[in-house]
Specification:
Keywords: DNA-binding, Transcription, Transcription regulation
Strand content: under 5%
Number of helices: 10
Largest sheet: none
Number of domains: 2
Number of strands: 0
Protein name: Regulatory protein TetR
GO molecular function: DNA-binding transcription factor activity; transcription cis-regulatory region binding
Radius of gyration: 19 Å
Structural class: mainly alpha
Helix content: over 70%
Organism: Streptomyces violaceusniger (strain Tu 4113)
Mean pLDDT: 89
Distance between the termini: 32 Å
Low-confidence stretches: 193-202
């Protein structure tokens, strides 16, 4: 996520972080279903309207890194060096996200998510949105002539790799194993040398 530089932007980012940290602490201490939006706002010493100006829903308070993760995934595509292969760049970013989400400090948070139907549903919708953004970034790259279908499939596979690896006994090894399969699938969809580009086909 872009680091805010102006005073107003820094203050806004600090308020957002304070709300998110307060919400997470209350959720972990008292239970996600027990704590309400007004409880979070009161504890963070902000108005409810201020809270909603930063977070669209109660579920979003738990996933405050949502936008940052989405940007990192798309930047793994758009920020690659010229001629840098796509799949290794994606694997590197997914590995970094998995390391972040499998740290010991994250375990209580994921336990809370896994035991809450509302949070599981939100996380699923978030993964679909991330996959759509990633697919759009891949399809827009003129150096990647795969079909639209292939771009969407690979994006979904990459996002699912994160979820599968997070639950694996050895997350790093799981990412590597899954991306070996993803790379094989991606290469299988690459047009043969000299074949006309098909990036806009379905």
């Amino acid at each position: 996520m872009t680091v805010p530089t102006g005073r107003r932007e820094r203050k806004k980012a600090a308020t957002r972080q304070k709300i998110a940290d307060t919400a997470l602490r209350l959720f972990l201490e008292h239970g996600y279903d027990t704590v309400g939006i007004r409880d979070v706002a009161a504890e963070a010493d902000v108005a409810v309207t201020t809270l909603f100006s930063h977070f669209a829903s109660k579920e979003a308070l738990v996933f405050e890194q949502d936008e940052n993760f989405e940007q990192r995934l798309t930047q793994a595509v758009t920020g690659r060096a010229p001629h840098e292969p796509l799949i290794p760049a994606l694997r590197h970013e997914i590995q970094a996200l998995v390391r972040h989400c499998t740290a010991d400090s994250a375990a209580p948070i994921w336990h809370m998510i896994d035991t809450s139907p509302a949070l599981r549903k939100y996380e699923e919708s978030m993964r679909l949105r991330h996959a759509e953004s990633l697919a759009t970034a891949i399809a827009a790259d003129p150096d990647l002539p795969q079909t639209t279908t292939a771009c969407h499939a690979i994006a979904r596979f990459a996002i699912d790799a994160f979820s599968l690896a997070r639950e694996a006994a050895d997350p790093r090894a799981a990412v590597d194993e899954i991306f070996h399969m993803i790379e094989a699938a991606w290469n299988a969809t690459s047009p043969s040398p000299g074949a006309p580009g098909t990036a806009s086909s379905t």
